[in-house]
Amino acid sequence: MSGNNLWTLPAGALCSLRALQSLNLSSNYLQSTSELGFGSQQLNSCRLPLTGLDLSGNRLSRLPEAAFGQLHKLERLDLSWNNLHLLHDLALQGLHRLQRLNLQNNKLVALPAKLFHTQDGEDQKRYVLDLWMRCNSLNEPIP
How far apart are CA 63 and CA 86, in angstroms? Predict the structure, then answer.
């Protein structure tokens, strides 16, 4: 679904794809992760077995709490080339298998201190093997 000039997705549009493992929504005009229906805070959220999600080259500006909280099997998340400037402390909540996170070419000046921690405080850093942060405006070391 890459490069399709998508501005939004209908609520629950992907929920019936129960075997979907990789989703490429790159190079579109998506502005909010809540439109995707993967957040654990949402009533109509989808629990898909995705291991890879590519949202690069969209217009995302912030990640709310548990933005992808229903994607418990997610290992690779690409958020590069967006307009991200704000990440909630618990934006990655529920992503216990996340190994590769690409945040290159955004507008981040800092990463929240608890970004790589689970809700119960368990340190989740040991699961993230690759972290790409190039071309941001970080003022602080990565926590």
Answer: 6
